[in-house]
């Protein structure tokens, strides 16, 4: 790329980048400002007198007013629940996605292509359509939450971590992503492992997975982001139970109260955003490589 082309590219992309980053920068700045200056006109990008009272109040490190306590501000359990649910879904889903992708990419069995197409077809179904069926299934899980063997008499997995985690243990998109990457792995490597006496699971674990680290990282980032930001399903499953409330639901409930302390809300929003940024920064190189290489072989 010539110097003129590079300059032109940066002249186009720089304003777009600033446009997308500006709201997040202002949110960070507002989280360090007192209530009196947050909505000043023009907006204050660099606080004149920065304070961490918003973070202290949100995390219950300081003294909260009665109104703030009634809003449930500072409840660190929101983030603990989100972290537990998101990390668990990420680990479990990445493993099962890789296992299914290996079967579709490297195993031969009747109806393989038909089943794979059916998996892809589920991606065209909006998630909102499956909310009620999934809710009914979770409610009638046998032997959980007071249910009998017919799934009746109790609440099943409602208001539980099981209900938050289990519907997300597999993803059609993740299977597709990893399957496309695994198609680029030479079959000769797998045949050599079979000649040495390795079983299929050992081939999958010791040969295929180490070669799929970029695609696994991409799948993990997508999964963690989706699980951390999920709002509708936790809201439906937990029904406002404070012990199982996740960060997005907690922040939403914080807003709809009679009075909103915006400095606390902005502090909580910054804290809720940081995990996704940290995960992306750590796995950025593998993520970009996984997206770039996926699908090079059909």
TrEMBL record:
Keywords: Cell membrane, Membrane, Transmembrane, Transmembrane helix, Transport
Cited Pfam families: BPD_transp_1
Compartments where found: Cell membrane
PROSITE patterns named among the record's database cross-references: ABC_TM1
Any one cellular-component term (Gene Ontology): plasma membrane
Alphabetical list of CDD domains matching this protein: TM_PBP2
Membrane-spanning intervals of the chain: 7-28, 83-104, 116-141, 161-182, 203-224, 262-283
GO BP: transmembrane transport
Homology family: Belongs to the binding-protein-dependent transport system permease family.
Protein name: ABC transporter permease subunit
Taxonomic source organism: Nocardioides marmotae
């Amino acid at each position: 790329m010539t110097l003129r082309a590079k300059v032109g590219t940066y002249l186009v992309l720089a304003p777009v980048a600033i446009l997308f980053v500006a709201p997040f920068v202002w949110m960070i700045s507002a989280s360090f400002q007192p209530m009196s200056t947050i909505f000043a006109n023009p907006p204050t990008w660099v606080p004149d007198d920065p304070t961490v009272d918003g973070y202290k109040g949100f995390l219950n490190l300081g003294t909260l007013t009665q109104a703030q306590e009634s809003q449930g501000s500072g409840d660190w359990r929101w983030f603990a629940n989100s972290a537990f649910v998101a990390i668990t879904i990420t680990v479990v889903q990445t493993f099962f996605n890789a296992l299914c992708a290996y079967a579709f990419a490297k195993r031969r069995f009747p109806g393989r292509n038909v089943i794979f197409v059916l998996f892809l077809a589920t991606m065209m179904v909006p998630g909102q359509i499956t909310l009620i069926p999934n809710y009914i299934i979770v409610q009638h899980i046998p032997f959980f939450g007071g249910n009998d063997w017919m799934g009746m008499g109790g609440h099943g997995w409602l208001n539980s971590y099981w209900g938050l985690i289990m519907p997300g243990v597999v993803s059609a998109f993740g299977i597709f992503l990893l399957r496309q990457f695994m198609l680029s792995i030479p079959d000769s490597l797998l045949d050599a492992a079979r000649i040495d006496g390795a079983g299929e699971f050992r081939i999958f674990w010791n040969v295929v997975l180490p070669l799929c680290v970029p695609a696994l990282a991409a799948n993990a980032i997508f999964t963690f982001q989706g699980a951390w930001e999920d709002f509708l399903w936790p809201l439906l499953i937990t029904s406002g139970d404070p012990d199982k409330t996740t960060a997005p639901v907690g922040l939403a409930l914080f807003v709809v109260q009679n009075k909103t302390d915006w400095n606390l809300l902005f502090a909580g929003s910054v804290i809720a955003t940081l995990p996704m940024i940290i995960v992306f920064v750590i796995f950025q190189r593998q993520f970009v490589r996984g997206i770039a290489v996926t699908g090079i072989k059909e």
